[in-house]
Amino acid sequence: VILPADFYQVDTPELAQKLLGKLLVHGQTSGIIVETEAYLGTRDPASHAYRGPGKRNAVMFGHPGHAYIYFTYGMHYCFNVVGGPEEVGEAVLIRALEPVDGIEVMQQRRKTDVLKLLCSGPAKLVQALGIAKEHNGTSLVDGPIQIHEPSGSHHPSTGSGNKLEIVTAPRIGISQAVNLPLRFYIKGSPFVSRI
DNA sequence: GACCAGATTGTCT
DNA sequence: GACAATCTGGTCA
């Protein structure tokens, strides 16, 4: 079941937590979202939206529920979900997935058979799912990339128990606003990018 | 686990 | 020119 458009019309830190446990789908590949980070608008120095809209971050200032895909470090792409109220420049970075469907395809794309290495980082999951820059700005409600409410037996691994606990932590890989608690992940998941 | 170097290019100063 | 919401592959412990 595809999540409806109004799922995304909430505060971005709240959306980042609501996305945990959902299924990110592209073609025959999919994975459960186990780690996210919220990036706020023009008041968040770590956000691409900090200096206002431009060519690269235009999608962030568009409609919630769309894909913002950016290029970084000269070689990697990362995937975000635009959130918040309309046109405020907020998004959720998807940092890690637990692989579910199309694992063989992911293994070929990632050139490794090790499950933990398929989607345990924002650029890794983009490569594993075959997401490309052409998907920037597409709708997650009726576009090629979708987010589903997991049906049936798709439960994220927690390592030990079966309760779903969310850990809140500082964001990773940034040099501004380093202490804000805007990173969220499923406690005990073996598939997060880092503990 | 920790730390480090190197890859490589769009964007901004 | 500097730097980037990263990854890989190396060292050391």
Structural features, described:
With 195 residues, the chain is of the alpha+beta class. The protein is 12% helix and 27% strand. Strands 1, 2, 3, 4, 5, 6, 7 and 8 form an eight-stranded antiparallel β-sheet that branches. Helix 2 crosses helix 3. The two termini are 31 Å apart. The mean pLDDT is 96. It binds a DNA duplex (13 and 13 nucleotides) through strand 3, strand 4 and helix 3.
Shape: globular
Describe the sheet with the most strands: 8 strands, antiparallel
Mean pLDDT: 96
The helix content, as a percent range, equals 10-25%
Q: List low-pLDDT spans.
A: none
Rg: 15 Å
How would you spell out the order of helices and strands? HEEEEEHHEEE
In terms of DSSP E residues, the strand content is 25-35%
For the termini, the CA-CA separation is 31 Å
Count of DSSP strands: 8
Number of helices: 3
**Structural class of the helices, strands and pairings?**
alpha+beta
